[in-house]
Write a structure and sequence with these properties.
This protein is 36% helix and 19% strand. The protein contains ten helices and eleven strands. It has helices spanning 2-22, 24-32, 36-52, 63-73, 101-115, 131-134, 154-159, 167-186, 205-211, 313-326; strands at residues 85-90, 118-123, 139-143, 190-194, 214-217, 222-228, 244-248, 252-254, 263-269, 284-293, 296-301. The strands form two sheets. It has a nine-stranded mixed sheet with strand order 2-1-3-4-11-10-9-6-7. The protein has a two-stranded antiparallel sheet with strand order 5-8. A hairpin with a 2-residue loop joins strand 10 (284-293) and strand 11.
Length: 341
């Protein structure tokens, strides 16, 4: 934890210093023409702007980084299955591109294969959601599958360019592919939804009901204090019981989220969040949960927007347990808290 906080502070300090250096000439010229009171206001503005701009810098996926992840994951407990579970990692985006898509794909592939009981298929093909193809898999992982607004329907985003289909046929096929996924989970399969994967079918109430909510909006990235809903729950047992510091986008949700038809794992307190929009009335925002959908199991985790977060063993272990839960290999309390939480 100390090492993580130090790393975040060093990165943030470096970025902040670069912002100050970049604007130094402009600041000097402005201050020379300003009185003392105005100078203080101007300096405050630049400092605030610098702090608001802090973030982890994107980097390309590389062999050194994946080797580091493999080294960490290799220490995790292995499982033994008479028949391997098959996992589909779906990493297509049609809308906003999260730079960490390839990193998240690599992380989940490493976690699944290292566990010893999984075979992994990587895909960006929406037709893997045809019934016959889906039936080959035990778990589907949705990796930052942001769709195009305002429609927010990834299947339709892809089909709209098919010149051989009329509009009615496109709508019908898109609905069919979404329904295939929902029925697949209802019949007892597993689903992991990571960060922006929740946006895939964001306007669909049925998809929202399956996942546990729909994306609403997020304030700017910032340092968050993620807290544990139940420190004794096996999925979060690797974290400090008091929670941990995490740099990310604080995701807020809508639609089925307010049914609270899930068992929360991680949350943030709203009064600690820096934001410009009007604050929602609820005081707690859950950012990770598990739930049943029919006979199937669903794991959702908003963390993380940044690949650097995956360098933390605790988060990797959390994702491994999420995969084991979705695959039906980890039994735990997944009862919904409901409206009487």
């Amino acid at each position: 934890m100390i090492a993580h906080n130090l790393k975040v502070n060093l990165i943030n300090s470096f970025i902040f210093n670069q912002i100050i250096i970049t604007n130094l000439v402009s600041i000097k010229l402005i201050l020379m023409k300003s009185n003392f009171k105005s100078s203080i206001l101007i300096l405050s503005f630049f400092i605030y702007s610098g702090l608001q701009s802090q973030s982890f810098s994107p980097f390309d996926l590389n062999s050194d980084w994946t080797a580091k992840i493999k080294s960490t994951v290799s220490e995790f407990e292995k499982i033994k299955l008479s028949k391997p579970k098959k996992v589909l990692i779906f990493s297509l985006h049609t809308g906003f591109k999260h730079w960490t898509i390839p990193h998240t794909e690599a992380v989940m592939k490493i976690i699944a294969e290292d566990a010893g009981g999984f075979e992994v298929t990587l895909s960006k093909d929406i037709f893997d959601f045809e019934k016959d193809r889906l039936s080959e898999f035990d778990v589907v992982i949705l990796n930052n599958n942001c769709s195009i607004g305002p429609g927010r329907n990834m299947f339709l985003d892809v089909l709209k360019d098919d010149s051989l289909m009329d509009e009615e046929s496109k709508q019908k096929k898109a609905s069919q592919l979404e329904r295939n996924l929902i029925r697949y989970i209802e019949k007892g399969k597993g689903l992991m939804v990571l960060h922006g994967g929740i946006v895939m079918q964001n306007n669909s109430i049925d998809f929202s009901g399956m996942v546990g909510g729909s994306f609403d909006f997020h304030p700017a990235q910032q340092e968050l204090h993620l807290k544990l809903h139940d420190p004794n729950h096996p999925l979060v047992s690797g974290f400090d019981p008091k929670g941990f510091v995490h740099y990310d986008e604080p995701y807020f949700f809508k639609n089925a989220y307010y049914r609270y038809d899930f068992r929360p794992l991680l949350y943030i307190e709203l009064d600690e969040i820096k934001m410009k929009r009007e604050r929602p009335s609820d005081k707690i925002k859950y950012v990770s949960w598990i739930k049943r959908h029919g006979r199937g199991r669903v794991f959702y985790s908003s963390p993380s927007h940044n690949a650097q977060s995956y360098e933390q063993p605790e988060l990797l272990a959390f994702l491994q347990k999420g995969l084991l839960y979705a695959a039906g290999l980890l039994d735990c309390d997944d009862s919904p808290i409901g409206l009487n939480r």
